[in-house]
Write a structure and sequence with these properties.
By secondary structure, this protein is mainly α. It has 21 helices and two strands. It has a two-stranded antiparallel sheet. Helix 11 packs across helix 12 and helix 14 packs antiparallel against helix 15.
């Protein structure tokens, strides 16, 4: 960024700003001087990067503020981020952001703001009274001030990476351009995968009980939670409660990677180079990405169900289970229950997104006066409620899928299609029959969310994922 006339002007401007902020003239700008300087320049809070020691990569003394060279490096990094965000908001690429583009950007995040609110945001940056914001006004307003609104909403209101409740139907996360450029996206995916593995292992007994009740519970045997647990322990001991967990953990990595790559490609096809999608577009892209991932890894889903329901000594391991299925039932067996599984993505992803966006919108409208950060309890509550609502809507299809995956391994069980199985369950057990096993499914939600969050935060620290 050195050499041209524009660079020389930029360095001079930054040098003047540094001198103005360095009130005690010690050659360094600390957070106290930055706050005082911003108050003189028109108020507002410093950017979070500034508040956290205003230290870019090269700061030799994180606690002592920044010298001129470090200050310039910080501002260079900051301007790059601001330019990326400016271009993403400037939808028609005319070099100006107007009221309609501000409204569109918030709408893309699932937040409805009135014309009056959008004009208020624009007025806070519009210095020349044109009712539009050019790059210079945008840069000068946000170079050191807190970059709230769009960037903060994107950053704080993510939930699917953090939450793993054992389901594979969630819509992937949006990653900002900055996260992609710095490589933070893959670190967050890895942190999410490890959190999911620990969470699923911790709640595996409840997951196995759910599958056991989906397949074996009926009006006649009155199988309940305690009876199901006791039956499994009697048959194979306490260790048997973790049957099927190995492959359940194993499939997290390929599924997350395929879903993320598919989502990015589909997103690009829908919106070109636009950074964010509207909520409806996220639903379409997320559902298609989920269907793509499920199509590729679905044989692992079938193996997971068979290994979860296996009797002691039935299979020697994963490969033996796969070989026996192939030998006795043929390759088509690895896609039994595929149709209800893919159809289940639509109600799950749709309701999960709709409920989450509604809760997010409510909170932002009522409580986000000073910050878009809702705090972890609000985030976890919103994510848990939305995921649970999605589960309730898609549960009958999940139950039918599990029955279809398992029916060939149960002696005397009829080999029914999806519609045949639905009719059979409704005629024999009524609507309640479509919700067998939902109690242990609900019981595992809170421990699963708690475990995945704690592990996710620790993994982020270990991998060096920066929180702004």
């Amino acid at each position: 960024m050195r050499g041209g006339p524009g660079d020389a002007e930029r360095l001079q401007r930054w040098g003047r700003l540094f001198e103005e902020l360095d009130s005690n003239k010690d050659g360094r700008v600390d957070i106290r001087e930055l706050r005082q300087g911003l108050a003189r320049l028109g108020g507002g809070d410093p950017d979070r990067g500034a508040q956290q020691g205003i230290s870019p990569e090269g700061d030799s003394d994180p606690d002592g503020g920044l010298d001129l060279e470090e200050f310039i490096l910080y501002l260079q990094e900051r301007e790059q981020r601001l330019l990326l965000l400016f271009h993403s908001l400037d939808r028609n690429q005319d070099g100006q952001i107007d009221v309609s583009e501000i409204q569109q950007s918030f709408r893309a995040l699932g937040i409805s703001i009135s014309l009056e609110q959008a004009e208020k945001i624009l007025h806070s940056m519009d210095r020349d009274g044109t009712m539009t914001i050019d790059w210079q006004e945008w840069r000068d307003h946000f170079l050191l001030h807190s970059l709230e609104n769009v960037e903060d909403v994107l950053y704080f209101w993510k939930h699917s990476t953090v939450l793993d409740i054992g389901e594979c139907l969630t819509v992937p996360d949006e990653f900002s351009e900055q996260e992609k450029l710095t490589g933070m996206w893959w670190k967050q995916l890895v942190a999410g995968a490890v959190a999911g593995a620990v969470s699923r292992t911790g709640t595996a007994p409840l997951d196995r009980l759910k599958v056991f009740m989906q397949v074996h519970a009926s009006k006649t045997n009155r199988l309940n939670i305690l009876g199901g647990l006791w039956s499994m322990i009697q048959e194979g001991g306490v260790r048997s409660l973790w049957r099927g967990n190995g492959i359940n953990v194993l499939k997290i990595a390929p599924e997350s990677a395929i879903k993320f790559m598919a989502y990015e490609q589909i997103k690009r096809a829908i919106r070109g180079q636009q950074e964010t999608l509207h909520v409806q577009e996220r639903f379409v892209a997320g559902s298609l990405a989920g269907a793509t991932a499920q199509t590729i890894i679905y044989p692992m889903e079938v193996l997971k169900t068979r290994l979860t329901l296996r009797r002691t000594g039935q299979y020697k391991g994963l490969l033996d289970c796969a070989w026996q299925i192939l030998e006795r039932e043929g390759p088509r067996a690895f896609y039994r229950g595929y149709l209800p599984n893919v159809l289940g993505i639509i109600p799950y992803a749709g309701i999960d997104l709709a409920v989450y966006e509604t809760l997010k919108n409510q909170w932002l409208q009522q409580y986000s006066h000073d910050s878009a950060d809702p705090g972890i309890l609000v985030l976890l509550a919103c994510g848990t409620i939305s995921s649970t609502c999605g589960q309730i809507a898609s549960y009958p299809l999940a139950l039918v899928r599990t029955r279809m995956q398992a029916q060939a391994s149960i002696e005397g069980a009829p080999q029914l299609s999806m519609l045949g199985l639905l009719r059979h369950i409704l005629s024999q057990e009524g609507v309640r029959g479509l919700y067998r096993g939902i109690a242990p499914n609900f019981m595992k939600v809170i421990p699963a969310v708690s475990i995945s969050y704690v592990v996710y935060e620790n993994m982020k620290q270990a991998l060096g994922v920066t929180s702004r």
